[in-house]
Design goal:
By secondary structure, the chain is mostly helical. The chain contains three helices and four strands. A hairpin with a 2-residue loop joins strand 1 and strand 2.
């Protein structure tokens, strides 16, 4: 009977150790998932913040151009302040932007059509095989 009691104590110890191991694995998994969710939420927040900063920079540029148009009429030249890089401060840094005059750019999309341009560029031996539509506006 005494020996039977000792065997049962060993089994109880093994069961307790298995429960502790399972709980520790579950706790580790929960902690890693929590970290992932926190990082995901942080990335979403920063992405939204960057989007709205870009929208603010665009509005600032539009307002500056409107003020120049009101001041100088229809005359726009590269010596005006719009051509200078502008910076406005934000929390933890700043946003730098510079407007680029696209008046002298040649829009390949308008002249040949996107499909014809892409077909020509992708078959040209010296040009890359994949051309994004973004790059088809050449300056």
């Amino acid at each position: 009977m005494n020996q039977l009691k000792r065997q049962q104590q060993g089994v109880a110890l093994i069961i307790v150790l298995l429960i502790v191991a399972i709980v520790s694995v579950l706790a580790t998994e929960m902690g890693s998932r929590l970290q992932l969710q926190i990082k995901r939420a942080s990335n979403i927040k920063e992405n939204n913040q960057a989007y709205w900063y870009a929208m603010g920079a665009e509005q600032y540029a539009r307002k500056s151009i409107k003020q120049l148009m009101d001041k100088d009429g229809d005359v726009i030249h590269l010596e005006q302040p719009w051509n200078q890089e502008f910076v406005y401060p934000i929390e933890g840094g700043g946003i730098q932007a510079q407007l680029v005059d696209m008046q002298s750019c040649f829009n390949l999309n308008e002249s040949l059509g996107l499909a014809q341009v892409a077909r020509h560029w992708t078959h040209h031996p010296k040009l890359p095989l994949r051309v994004s539509p973004y790059y088809l506006n050449a300056c």
